[in-house]
Amino acid sequence: SDQLNVLEISRHSNRLKTGHLRGNRFRITARGEEPFGPQAVEAIAERLSLLEVTGFPNYFGPQRFGGTGEGVARAVANLTSGRQRKSHSARFEMSVVQSAVFNLVLRERVIGQRLTPEPGDVVIRKGGLRPFAFDDRGDTPAEALVPAGPMPGRRMAVASGEPKATELRAIEQCGVSDELFESHRKLAPGTRRPLVQFFGRPTVELDSTANLVLEFDLPPGTYATAGLRELFAD
């Protein structure tokens, strides 16, 4: 490319895997039925600044579950059928079920206005990676932490109290049990994922045709559509 120059190439000690990156920068053009004006830019800029601090619900987007919306039911049916499955198909289906459990937990906590850490939670520092028990946070202020939702599996850190009860209800709603995750532990070992995510370095401006142009950073695995849904919510 005439716009890019490779400055240096060297070997890395670790094998790069899917999602092994610091994050993604998005540039999104929003078009309305009517042209946007300066007031719209100001309102969206204020909303972006607020969400940069408070965060937004870190839902998996609908594309995770297939275009028809039947991906979860199909995945559960295939995984519990007893039929031999190709590893790549079973791995994808397990990720669909894990994502569905996560979204159900997040939905219940959004409805209950429980998006801040509470006793029994597993949490992650804002911008961090390692989950740990909220009750073991020591001197770390709660404002520096976000609750971490379940991606069920053997290696997932276990919550307690009401957070655990919420997660068990979500697993039951999906029509599965811990036995499913145990039997597929090699394909879906389990982890934790922040229930809340944050825009980084957000900007908004009008282009030459009065469309809104948004730019922001998001960590790996975060769906821009989840942030945009919150940004443009009535």
| Number of extended strands | 9
C-alpha termini separation: 42 Å
Q: What structural category do the secondary elements indicate?
A: alpha+beta
Strand order of the largest sheet: 4-3-5-6
CATH third-level topology of the largest domain: Pseudouridine synthase
Q: Biggest β-sheet: count, sense, barrel?
A: 4 strands, antiparallel
What does the average pLDDT come to?
92
Just give the CATH class of the largest domain: Alpha Beta
Q: Given the structure, what is the number of helices? A: 6
Number of domains: 2
Percent strand: 15-25%
Instruction: Give Rg in angstroms.
Output: 20 Å
What percent of residues adopt helix (DSSP H or I)?
A: 25-40%
The CATH H-level homologous superfamily of the largest domain:
TruD, catalytic domain
Describe the secondary-structure layout.
Elements: E1 24-30, H1 38-54, E2 56-57, H2 71-79, H3 87-111, E3 122-125, E4 132-133, E5 145-151, H4 161-173, H5 178-183, E6 191-194, E7 196-197, E8 200-206, E9 212-218, H6 224-231
Antiparallel strand pairs: 1-9, 2-7, 3-4, 3-5, 5-6, 8-9
Helix pairs in contact: 2-3, 3-4
Describe what you observe in this structure.
The chain has 234 residues and is of the alpha+beta class. It folds into two domains: 24-54 and 198-231; 59-197, TruD, catalytic domain (Pseudouridine synthase, 2-Layer Sandwich), CATH 3.30.2350.20. It is built from six helices and nine strands; from the N terminus they run βαβααβββααββββα. The protein has a four-stranded antiparallel β-sheet, with helices on one face. A three-stranded antiparallel β-sheet has the order 1-9-8, with helices on one face. It has a two-stranded antiparallel sheet with strand order 2-7. Helix 2 crosses helix 3 and helix 3 (87-111) packs across helix 4 (161-173). The chain is globular. 29% of the residues are buried. The model has no long low-confidence stretch (mean pLDDT 92).
